[in-house]
Design brief:
Helices cover 47% and strands 10% of the residues. The protein contains 11 helices and 6 strands. The strands form 3 sheets. It has a two-stranded antiparallel ribbon. It has a two-stranded antiparallel ribbon with strand order 3-4. α8 packs across α10.
C-alpha cells in the first residue's frame, strides 16, 4: 500500500530553483546540471522497487556541496513552490497527518536520503516527504541501520496488508491503558526489517501509548450515551465496524484503528463503561 503521491517532474523544479539564485551559485549549479540529472535518474531507478539503501554514494565536494544545499535552504520562491506542489499533490485524506507517525501535523519536509550525505537530492521532489517536526528530528541524518533502511518510504514502499501493529488493553486502578507491540513474523521480505527499524527509530510504540489515553477517553465519551440502548455485543459490533472503516481508509496498521479494535474486543473495557 502506498500512501503518498510523488511528483513526476523532477529536474523541472530543480531548474526553477537554480534559475532564481544569485549569479555565482546559479552558474556553478548549471555547470553540473547533467550530473544532477543523471543522479535524479539513479534515484528513480533505485526507488522502484525501493532499494534506496544501495544507491551509490555522492561524489560532490565543497564548495559544490554548499551550493547544492542552498537549493533547499535558500528560502527562495522556487523551493517554496516545490514544497507547496508536494503538499498539494497528496490525497486529501493524508494532508493533515504525518505519515511517518499518523499523529503530528506534516509541517516540515524530511530529506529521505539526508542532505548531509546526498546534497544533490536536497531539492529533489521525490526525496522530500511531508512529516511532523518530531519525526523529522527523531529520524535525523541516519538512513541506514546495520545496512538496512531505517525509515519506511511512503512514496515507494509497498506495505503489506498484514496486521503487524498490535494493541493490548490492560487496566490499572480501574483505568484502561493501551500497550502497543510489533509482530512482523507474517511480513515477507526485507520490508519487515524496515518496519521494525522505523518503529524503533521514531519511538512509535511509546508515542502511541502516550497518545492513546486521550483516544480512549473519546471512545468512552462516545459510547457512554448508548448504555441501555445497546447490548455489549451490539456495541462491540459497532466499534469493530468503525475500526474496519478506519482501516479501509488509513491502512490496517493505522494505530487509532488498532486501538479501537482492541477496545471493542475487551469485555472489561465495555463492562467498565456500563455494557453488559
Amino acid at each position: 500500500m502506498k500512501n503518498l503521491t510523488p511528483l513526476t517532474r523532477k529536474i523541472y523544479y530543480w531548474d526553477k530553483i537554480v534559475n532564481a539564485m544569485h549569479l555565482r551559485n546559479r552558474n556553478a549549479l548549471q555547470a553540473i546540471r547533467p550530473t544532477i540529472e543523471r543522479r535524479f535518474r539513479e534515484y528513480g531507478h533505485f526507488s522502484t522497487p525501493n532499494v534506496l539503501g544501495r544507491i551509490p554514494a555522492s561524489t560532490f565536494v565543497e564548495p559544490t556541496v554548499t551550493s547544492l544545499k542552498t537549493c533547499y535552504d535558500s528560502g527562495s520562491n522556487g523551493i517554496g513552490l516545490l514544497k507547496q506542489k508536494i503538499r498539494d499533490c497528496q490525497p486529501e485524506l493524508f494532508k493533515g497527518e504525518c505519515q511517518y507517525c499518523n499523529m503530528g501535523e506534516p509541517s516540515t519536509m524530511d530529506h529521505y536520503l539526508p542532505q548531509l550525505y546526498f546534497p544533490e537530492f536536497s531539492a529533489l521532489s521525490i526525496n522530500l516527504i511531508p512529516c511532523c517536526p518530531t519525526c523529522n528530528t527523531e529520524k535525523g541524518d541516519q538512513y541506514l541501520f546495520l545496512g538496512n533502511r531505517r525509515i519506511i518510504n511512503y512514496y515507494f514502499d509497498d506495505l503489506p496488508i498484514v496486521d503487524y501493529l498490535l494493541c493490548n488493553i490492560t487496566f490499572r486502578r480501574g483505568v484502561a491503558k493501551a500497550n502497543f507491540s510489533l509482530d512482523t513474523t507474517a511480513v515477507v521480505g526485507d520490508i519487515a526489517t524496515v518496519i521494525e527499524n522505523h518503529f524503533k527509530a521514531l519511538d512509535l510504540l511509546e508515542r502511541y501509548r502516550e497518545r492513546s489515553g486521550g483516544e480512549i477517553i473519546e471512545v468512552m465519551d462516545a459510547i457512554t450515551q448508548r448504555v441501555g440502548a445497546k447490548s455489549l455485543h451490539e456495541m462491540r459490533t459497532e466499534l469493530l465496524g468503525d475500526a474496519i472503516a478506519l482501516k479501509n481508509r488509513k491502512g490496517v496498521n493505522y494505530w487509532r484503528a488498532v486501538l479501537k479494535t482492541s477496545l471493542a474486543n475487551s469485555d472489561q473495557f465495555l463492562e467498565s463503561v456500563g455494557f453488559h
